[in-house]
Amino acid sequence: MSKQEKKLFIQTLGCQMNDTDSQHMIAELKEHKNYTTTQNIEEADLILINTCSVREKPVSKLFSEIGQFNVKKKKSAKIGVCGCTASHLGHDIIKRAPYVDFVLGARNISKIKDIVDKKGAVEIDIDYDDSTYQFAQNSNNLYKTSVNISIGCDKECTYCIVPATRGDEISIPPEMIIEQIKKDVDKGAKEVTLLGQNVNSYGRRFSDKREKTTFTKLLQEVSKIEGLQRIRFTSPHPLHMDDEFIEEFAKNPKISKCIHMPLQSGSTKILKAMKRGYTKEWFLNRARKIRDMVPDVRITTDIIVAFPGETQEDFEDTIDVIKQVKFDQIFNFKYSPRPNTAALKLKDLEIADEIGTKRLMEVIELHKQHQSELMDKNVGKTVTVLFESLKPNGEVAGFTDNYCQVFVKGSDELLGRFVDVKVTNATRTALKGEVVDK
Ligand code: SAH
Ligand code: SF4
Ligand code: F3S
């Protein structure tokens, strides 16, 4: 080997886009700089922390964490701060923690192979366009792959820092997406997740001048890939869930029947203040249409409680939507004021923390009841599962077509296969069962 092998320790926070960004950085560093990953920070030559700034907590944790990394690391090891917090804090990171070697913002990660050797470099340009960059390949799950279909976000949700950290939305050309998925399928992938901050606004702007297209068309193209058996995507926006999209979702057998519908609030007044672009009625209408057209669909959501100005009545609207839709999974958040967001102007309307906590607990309790009810309905049914991992306790884990996690007793011969399972037991978050057909 010409160059000496070096070790990379990487910590990833935040969303699935950050996960793929980390995978891309790992692959680039492996291909161009001879790095392999390690879980042991003490032997690392390079420590990367890929950050998230969507809520306040992870940001305040960042500095104590990199401080600890600095204590544990080898003397010669470098530290790089990447991702969304890198985008918005930029130079301040090195000012506050001078032992940090470089700062690399989200949307700039294709520069990783160059920046690792530039002490003090800060690359955080949110207009940088790496939508056509051919990243080196790295696979961490044999049967599943994730492919970015766009970068950035054009929405202006008033609570959200993402447009300020990831810049404007640019779609990745369909032929690049298809080629990437084909390569992964050749290596054994059965399932793909298409990723973007707002996937169903896909196709409106590309790096080059080309005809516009739509997410529904992309789904149709992706589903033609031979050998690919399951398609997932996240996050779609309820506003763009038009009839054409819902019909494709319902009738395309390759599309996993689990859909994320980020509600945020059930109150039309608050939705307006959040600039979400839809009303309570629109959301309910879309959810109903999906439930009517797709019998076993699972619907997941994100909810923010205590957005500035949220009255008890507004909150009751959120509870009402939860009761009507009965989400299969809810990711709950208490509003967290973020820099560079329009909602900061609503400071005077901010809700007392105790009220926020109380509302959050109410959502959690109601959701738990729904989860038990919905999951119990699976007992006795036969479901098809794509198995993907072996657990230390001798169980094999996988996901159904509507993306419910299932555990069975079995061995590695189940891995990578779609197998029928009879469900014998349900908890709020997973199913247990027995293989009925090998
Ligand atoms: N683009 C995706 C998700 C972006 S961030 C979408 O629109 O669905 C993931 C979730 O974090 C959001 O859906 C929202 O519920 C939550 N979130 C974003 N900003 C927040 C803030 N300032 N306070 C609390 N939760 C927030
Ligand atoms: Fe943020 Fe809204 Fe864009 Fe999602 S759609 S990333 S919540 S601005
Ligand atoms: Fe966090 Fe950035 Fe994703 S702020 S949620 S890592 S887009």
UniProtKB/TrEMBL annotation:
Residues annotated as domain TRAM: 376-437
Keywords: 4Fe-4S, Cytoplasm, Iron, Iron-sulfur, Metal-binding, S-adenosyl-L-methionine, Transferase, tRNA processing
Cofactor binding remark: Binds 2 [4Fe-4S] clusters. One cluster is coordinated with 3 cysteines and an exchangeable S-adenosyl-L-methionine.
Catalysed reaction, written as an equation: N(6)-dimethylallyladenosine(37) in tRNA + (sulfur carrier)-SH + AH2 + 2 S-adenosyl-L-methionine = 2-methylsulfanyl-N(6)-dimethylallyladenosine(37) in tRNA + (sulfur carrier)-H + 5'-deoxyadenosine + L-methionine + A + S-adenosyl-L-homocysteine + 2 H(+)
Main location: cytoplasm
SMART domains tied to this protein: Elp3
Keyword Iron part of the UniProt annotation: yes
Localization of this protein: Cytoplasm
Keyword Aminoacyl-tRNA synthetase: no
Binding-site residues, [4Fe-4S] cluster 1: 15, 52, 84
Family matches, as HAMAP family: tRNA_metthiotr_MiaB
Role played: Catalyzes the methylthiolation of N6-(dimethylallyl)adenosine (i(6)A), leading to the formation of 2-methylthio-N6-(dimethylallyl)adenosine (ms(2)i(6)A) at position 37 in tRNAs that read codons beginning with uridine.
Family stated for the protein in its record: Belongs to the methylthiotransferase family. MiaB subfamily.
Record protein name field: tRNA-2-methylthio-N(6)-dimethylallyladenosine synthase
Species of provenance: Halarcobacter anaerophilus
GN (gene name): miaB
